[in-house]
Amino acid sequence: xxxxxxxxxxxxxxxxxxxxxxxxxxxxxxxxxxxxxxxxxxxxxxxxxxxxxxxxxxxxxxxxxxxxxxxxxxxxxxxxxxxxxxxxxxxxxxxxxxxxxxxxxxxxxxxxxxxxxxxxxxxxxxxxxxxxxxxxxxxxxxxxxxxxxxxxxxxxxxxxxx
Length: 162
Prior knowledge:
Blueprint: H1 2-6, H2 9-23, H3 28-42, H4 68-88, H5 92-95, H6 98-107, H7 112-119, H8 124-128, H9 130-142, H10 148-156
């Protein structure tokens, strides 16, 4: 797959270089492209910082009217997902897509069987951390009181105040 994917890169490079040289006076365009490419390569990618309220900005949250208990589950799973993504050097969406994260938060499954039925499709990270995820959900449900005011603010559409 990788060989097939890169097979034509040198050919494309040659075509683009020739086109740049032919369409510019001297090496002006070619030097400009090399300069811009170098600047892009020097940019440092920084992962988003996880805060106590990061879960509030998940895509799809506003469309779901979540209770305090459901928000607590969402916050716990969001933090878990971020930790696993950093440890595995993967995107959070690959670890657990937002849609699935929200569905688990809405259903709040407290057994492994219910969690598997909620997710429906295979997820190797959920399978690997199944017991841990259930513990997160149970603890979140038990400690949901801290999310009451946030749930109320979300219902009133005043997320900015959180």
